[in-house]
């Protein structure tokens, strides 16, 4: 009955509190605090369901659409209207705003913000402190103090987390995670409605990238298996040119798809610009209130202050980047070269496998240390919002990834010209490393979940020691979700930055060494087909429902993909030189000169092809211009009405001479 009730009522948030204690004291010490929390939630309009667990109690929350609308109005959320203009939400004018594809008024990201505002917005509005009893001690809830923050600080509220909607989760499991017949097709609209835009963008990119990989995979297998006779020397340069063209067109068409998805989901693209405008509006309002009618352009001291802060922020970012680069060169580069040299010197395959295992284990600690250092460094940077901070962290951490993934391969290819070892390492990275990574990503969450369940049962048995032995079991899904690990694709605690790291590293691997091992594209395509379903199953069944993140593009990763294409042009030209210059004389013969010429031509093609394909479809551009025109006309008419009404007031209020 409990499971049926949970399926019928789509509770969306959970609050973990201590389980009520019923003993000789009576009602219990903890129950008073929990009762106050429940009463405050209900006063706010939330529907609360109390579910007892083994060691804790869970408050499941859901808000009617009217309560969400009032919270959205208090937050001053901007939503898309029927005429295509983003305006501040007003509950009385809710019919003027566009609904989501599933019929709901608010997206999951907007609902989560409203829930967060309501849960943490409960304040003691009285003039005196309220005494809350907890564990036979008093907790003073001071006037103006937020209730949930106070109880979290006291350890009474253990956690607040989003809850899976069982009906929608099972639908996604059926049509997405367990649907292997649709290799790359995914229900992106349903993913966006359930998880938010960031995770939906990730799976959209992964699906499109995998679908586009089928062409270079087939071409790579053809180049590897077919003997073209006298044309064999021309096949690799031709394959290289095709791969670069494919990569450039893929990124351009991804930009088009990204803009199409945002238009379909009614999402405004200019997130960064919006935050900048808010920042300028805040500065202007404070400046206007203090200075009065003096114009901003005339205040030189204010300008100088902005300029100093701007350049100080640039210098901080430059300093942090320099620290990361010098650390990579001085600490990680010798480690990578030592590993590559030992791998080249060892003759036993068993020893090589053991060395690779030790190396993969060691670089995990290098990445963790580098990530923690990067997080500490970016805290000093004056980034406008969390998305800019995440991008700054991505650039720094990718330097570590780049050194770990590619320097050893270049060592085998350029210095030793050992292409057999190079191919072995590429196969290890593409197959063994990714298989082990997938096993770890899917087994560790289950192990953590099982361990937390085991600890909960043990704690219950210790607490009931001396009482009649009873079988311990979990009777609610909310408790099972609480024991699941938190989904996070980030190195920093508050920055969601690591969704695309594995995809970017794979893209760099197959692109930078395409001429050395053409079938690598086939291995990548096969891995990504399984990765789509494995990631979907992971976030649907093995993790809690992720906290929604606001992001409309893949952010800094797009620039990294562009950078990897340029680097791959250079590295593949070096590989072609090593393949054709067997003696190692490095003579500029006509063949080698042709390769150098091809490098410059490909760089030109890369930048030219980027301009051939528009970044957004014409219908998206036309729709945006239409909305902008309608907004301008509406504002113009409103301004004219205000001006006319003000003049009428002035005319009627003017005294006449007798």
UniProtKB/TrEMBL annotation:
Record-given protein name: Uncharacterized protein
Species the sequence originates in: Smallanthus sonchifolius
